[in-house]
């Protein structure tokens, strides 16, 4: 389990981030105690949230019979993806697949 800190902003929340190789990314803590200590720096309204190590999604079928893979909100936030972002499905040829943002 990983832990992140969210801070209220307007009528929503923002996650505490760090600079990553692709831009800002959510800062995760391995220990709850570390996350709680850092959350105190952001004030009384900051909260610590858990992020599971893995996610399971169920494919959905649209009216045309196309399959849709709903992605968890925390993953979209972490990657900077939004509904409508074009993704490329890559066969890694080792039994795994990757999804990357398609900038074309």
Protein model, in words:
By secondary structure, this protein is of the alpha+beta class. It has 2 domains: about 1-55, no CATH class; about 55-104, Pemi-like Protein 1, Chain: D (Ribbon). It is about 15% helix and about 40% strand. The protein has 2 helices and 9 strands. The chain has helices spanning about 30-40, 75-80; strands at about 1-10, 10-15, 15-20, 25, 45-50, 60, 65-70, 85-90, 95-100. Strand 6 and strand 7 form a beta hairpin. The mean pLDDT is about 85.
Poorly predicted regions:
none
**N-C termini distance:** 35 Å
How would a crystallographer describe the biggest sheet? 3 strands, antiparallel
Would you report the number of β strands? 9
Which structural class do you get from the secondary structure elements? Answer: alpha+beta
Helix and strand sequence: EEEEHEEEHEE
Estimate the strand proportion: 35-45%
Number of domains as seen in the coordinates:
2
Radius of gyration: 17 Å
Percent helix, as a range, is: 10-25%
Number of helices: 2
Describe the secondary structure blueprint for this structure:
Elements: E1 2-9, E2 12-15, E3 17-20, E4 23-26, H1 32-40, E5 47-51, E6 60-61, E7 67-68, H2 73-79, E8 87-91, E9 97-101
């Amino acid at each position: 389990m990983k832990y992140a800190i969210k801070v209220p902003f307007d009528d929503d929340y923002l996650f505490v981030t760090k600079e990553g190789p692709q831009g800002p990314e959510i800062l995760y803590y391995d220990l709850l105690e570390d996350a709680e200590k850092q959350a105190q720096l952001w004030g009384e309204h900051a909260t610590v949230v858990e992020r599971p190590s893995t996610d399971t999604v169920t494919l959905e079928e649209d009216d045309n019979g196309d399959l849709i893979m709903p992605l968890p909100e925390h993953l979209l936030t972490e990657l900077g993806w939004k509904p409508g972002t074009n993704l490329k499905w890559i066969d890694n040829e080792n039994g795994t697949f990757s999804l990357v943002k398609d900038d074309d």
